[in-house]
Amino acid sequence: MARALYIHWPFCAKKCPYCDFNSHVRDIVDVAAWEGALLADMRAEAEAAGGESLTSIFFGGGTPSLMPPQLVERLLKEAEQLWGFADSIEITLEANPSSVETAKFAALAQAGVGRVSLGVQSLDDTVLGWLGRLHGSDEALAALETAQRHFGRVNFDLIYALPGQTEEQWRSQLERAIGFGTSHLSLYQLTIEPGTRFASDVRRGVFAPLDDDAAAELFAVTQSMTESAGLPAYETSNHARLGEESRHNLTYWRYQDYAGIGPGAHGRRSGFATVRHKKPENFLRAVSERGHGISEQRHLSAGEQASEALLMGLRLREGIDLAGFETRFGTAREGLIKPAKLEHLLSIGMIWKTGARIGVTQAGRPVLDGILSELVADDLVQV
Length: 383
What we know:
The longest helix has 18 residues, at 31-48. Helices cover 42% and strands 21% of the residues. The protein has 383 residues and is of the alpha/beta class. Helix 1 runs parallel beside helix 2 (69-83) and helix 7 (167-178) packs parallel to helix 9. It contains 16 helices and 15 strands. The strands form three sheets. A nine-stranded mixed sheet has the order 7-8-6-5-4-3-2-1-9, sandwiched between helices. Strands 10-11-12 form a three-stranded antiparallel sheet.
């Protein structure tokens, strides 16, 4: 089974109003203290979850491009010593396209990063201001050009289905984005997450989200345009040329084992779920006192694992193999999905089926959450 490592850097220069990730703004970050804590947390995790070479490493956040390249290099060297690296390991780092962070790209590539994911989010300066981003469109395009010079693989994110956004506006922006020639695009509909400033703004009537029908039309446009450009969706929001899919994220969606270190990081290993302390100060204290940052570790029942694997796997274009799931989780097919619902969804073209493999069709993807709630067996987690 594949082994991936996720490293969380929790700090940002500013908290974006739509973001519900574990990110924090601090005036001062003690890099030496964080190096020691992350290395200790990594060693503790390797002791519990060693034995297989790493196939991918992902630096997420927060804003990991704020990390000194020397720290990235130190963490990678330690990971290689602890686990070993598989041939053609994928090493990804998320980055914001500010000039300060772009200046580090050459050093990050030298440190071992081979793939970068840029948080561009929009190519429109007005929208970037509304989204609370600290960069402008010109700065983003300069960062993209620099990234394509230094890294073998480049992804960038865009957010669409914004309040009042028209099909013409999104078509124009997406056409421009495709034209930059990256091998991967992450295209996310704006979601109003609880606890964010945008959630508060919506409650107070500052703005209204785009309605569901209009958002569904933009989703259909996205699928059509990327497919035609040779960047089909291999997951609901992620589009790539054949062979350029994010191998790290495929580890999650295929429900394979991965280790997670750093504040708030989640992991799955040998049937156990791990969660690290979210608040940076609590994480540092835990590592100092116990040698690791884990706040919770528990064994997942076969039913819980099967439920998570179904919910993740059905996001993928490739779908899931029900026969394989029966063997893997020791659960009969009828305990995984509702047969009558499956037949109904097949009959209306929301699900496809080839042998024991099922997946969500193009028509079903805009209503994926509804399909999952109908299809997955109600009592699965009680198995």
